Amino acid sequence: MSIWSTMLKNKQKKRKNDNVRQHNDPQKPEEQPIQRNYEDNVSRIKGELGNSTDLLFREYQIGDHKGTIVYVDGLANGQLINDFFNETLLNSGFNGNQDPFQFLIEKAAGLGNFQFATEWNQVFDSFLSGNTLFFLDGYNQAINVETKGWDKRSISEPSTQLSIGGPKDSFTETIRTNTALIRRRIKSPNLWLESMKLGTVAQTDIAIMYIKGIANEKIIGEVKERLNQINIDAVMAEGYIEQLFEDQTWTPFPTTHHSERPDVIASHLLEGRIAILVDGTPFVITVPAIFAQFFQAPDDYYARFDISTSLRILRILAFLIALMGPALYIAATTFHQEMIPTTLAIAIASQRENVPFPAFIEALIMEVTFEILREAGLRLPRAVGQAVSIVGALVIGQAAVQAGIVSPIMVIVVSITAIANFSTPTFMMAIAARLIRFAMMALATFLGLYGIVLGLMFMSIHLCALRSFGIPYMMPIAPFNAQNQQDIFIRYPIWAMKYRPKFISKGNLVRAGDNQKPMPPKQEDSQDSKGES
Amino acid sequence: MENAKIKASQMFVLVVLFEMGSSILVGLGGSARQDAWISILLGLAGGILVFFIYYRLFKYYPELPLTSYLQKITGKWIGRILALFYVVYFMYVATRVLRDFGELLTTTIYTATPLVVINSLMILTIIYGIHKGFEVIARIGELYFAIIYFMAISGMILVTGSGLIHFENIRPMLENGMKPVLRTFLKETLVFPFGEMIVFTMLLPYLNNPKKVKIACIGGMGLAGINIAITAIVNVAVLGPDLFVRSNFPLLTTIGKIQLANFIERLDVFFMLYLVIGGFFKITIFYYAAVIGAADLFKLKSHQKLNFPIGFVILLASLMIASNFAEHIEEGLNVVTIYLSWPFQIIIPLFLLVIAFFRNRKKQPKQQSNQQHNQQSSQS
Prior knowledge:
Chain A has 533 residues and is of the alpha+beta class. Chain A has helices at 2-23, 38-48, 78-89, 100-108, 120-128, 175-185, 217-229, 238-245, 262-270, 299-302, 305-334, 342-352, 359-379, 385-395, 398-402, 408-422, 427-465, 526-532; strands spanning 55-62, 65-72, 114-117, 132-136, 142-145, 191-198, 204-211, 257-259, 274-278, 284-287, 467-468, 471-472. The longest helix of chain A has 39 residues, at 427-465. By secondary structure, chain B is mainly α. Chain A: Keywords: Membrane, Transmembrane, Transmembrane helix.
């Protein structure tokens, strides 16, 4: 293991060196001012972008001064710019008394929020993110007007994290829409948003959101530091960032959480977590993440506590089945036949009579087949979906049994495992169970239940050693914390969840006031209580 | 010493798991027949008294583990030799527990699996745990404490529900007088498991609040002692004194008798579940104490380097210390208790306490500076 750590250290050193190199990169357009001659400017822009055809220039004249506007077709709102150009700029009514640049500013202000650009890197940044630039001959400044308006997907229902109750909107690929969706839920001035750009080439917009006073300052600092350390050409989706800034790479368990539901992200923010939004993906990351959190579904909070508690316990049970179902079957049939009631044992034995494989191979065939079907199902064109599902039902079903490859009970075990796996609310946690299941199956084959128990032991050591942004992953189960058990195995009634999780948030811990428990009105004092409210 | 801090509740849980570890599995106090529970409770009382020796020593040197303050109390060279003996002793006990554990599995469920496979997988898991550090061990302790209690309570309900408990088996109390009880107390229950708290002298400095040492450790011992005594009572009540004495693993036999609603029966595997968990913590703590003891003795900066070698030694020794199970048990009952447990758990600490008392009385005015010096040396 020490070899690993030294290798990692070397890597980090290298990374730092890379950082230094990046800053001295001579190719980048450094702090160069805009020229006064507008033709020079235009040719420079064209040269830098290699005459890209989506770059549009439209020329105009104010008095004696020629000028041009520059924008990227598709990024800027073309309709708006056209209308403005035709109606306002061409019929400018410039009388020659004014300073033409001042005149242009007044006109441009009508188009949108504007700034001045004096350096070349500002110029490129602005029109590549959808702004429009106004150049005027004889002036070494450009007016940078915000005209962002590209085609975007409208807000739709969540496609991967469904719920019965609660809101039905989900994030989109546009970061501004996503921040607005969160702000619409938390109308507090303490909801702070910080922006940055990641990706040396792609320059993707990143936003960090947290509630000042609830989120832990130390974790905010850590998040920013880790984000600043990221040095990569592009950040395509939330998965890039998750993999680049999680605490540990060598683990099947997710140590960051992402969701496409604004209500989930808002409630995470209210617990003191920090959200990281990435432009171009409908998933928002929150950190720190703890193990128990991956079993909390949004429905839990919209239903009454007894129902949601039982559902949550059901989900944990399903996770254990998904983890160990086939392994337990293998262990019971190969090592611990005495565990099975006699009649069932005889039934299993007679079913397995015609099966040529040992239980492990039998289970492996079925599990791998199912995993292939599932992976294929993700990518199936809609038109062939039905055909494949029929084939799938044949492969894991009666046909496989009749062909004498597997026993009927194996089909049942694999099906239960597969269905149980889908009941974990978070895909990343379910996939971890899927992966570990195979290790468990192998252990059960060699050592029966002892192997499974050792596997669980190994897994729990691993889980207890994991951290997410410094927070122990198994918090508040191990290390145990009695005060924070309100939302772990038992989901307390909302009025009893008085405090935010202490290990995540710092500062403002009180979530609900005293005496929130609903009561029926007292008969005698009903008049008084009405008066009070 | 590793740079770790654990809470008092975590220490408590570790003490309970450690004490209950393997002592619940074997028929502890079997030679006292149906009075086993009396000798267990006596052992608990004696163990708490012995723990006060360790506690006083800890009070003199709150920042140091046993292997360090041995050298302060008895001088550099004698102290080092004694510390080396202690390290070897911890390794030996870890070895014995590992062998117990492997033998149990190979004689009951895995009759066809070689001992080396079972032991090496166990030690691999433990090496992984120790690699992750003491804080992680304390955390898994909390996790499994809940699981063990859940199993114990449901086991009690099942045993009672199957109508197996016959209290007449426990009577007559003190059939043969106090003598066999006392002999069992001195030979068995005092040194196993309660005297084994000596290993915690290595771990007490990890506690974040030194004031809570007493409550965490003695509370843990008390809870574990009561649990072991209850187990002994249940075992005798279910099996009767004869079978209790004859059986190698009375609890396994007891669990095997559970039969409820024609469905819940043959729960032997749950015994095995407990066995793995209990064995894990007992071996881990002895093994960890040996590792940090050796690192402290040989002034290594990181104990991690010793993790794997010592684990390998423990694994090999567990296969070699006895040629068969009978020999292993015979050594455990008649050699280890008298020639190892008594000296290492009681006699040497007692001498240490006496010497430490006189040394520290002389140095009373200097104690402040002495403590500061200790702190510096422990930090470095």
